[in-house]
Amino acid sequence: MTPTRKDLLFYLRQYAEEAGNAPLLFTEDRTWTVGQVYADVQRCAAFLAEQGVAPGDYVALHCVRCVPTVLLWLTLQVMGTVTVLCDPHTSAGACLKA
Description:
alpha+beta, two-stranded antiparallel ribbon, two-stranded parallel sheet, 4 helices, 4 strands, globular
């Protein structure tokens, strides 16, 4: 078996090309299509890269059950960061390795 170099961004891009108008995430008030999620992830990744976030960086993500958290998690995965999921009721210091 030959390993592939296909990553999450590859599959998200492919899904956006094939089914860009299909619903992917939703709340009571709004629905995000696959294409919108892909575009949001791309924009967020560009912004975070400008701020100095790079592949391999450890990033603490306070997990609140909402669409922005999902979008940010996807973005961080696409960027190749090590995302540390934290309880939003825990202090940031408790999420860091001593």
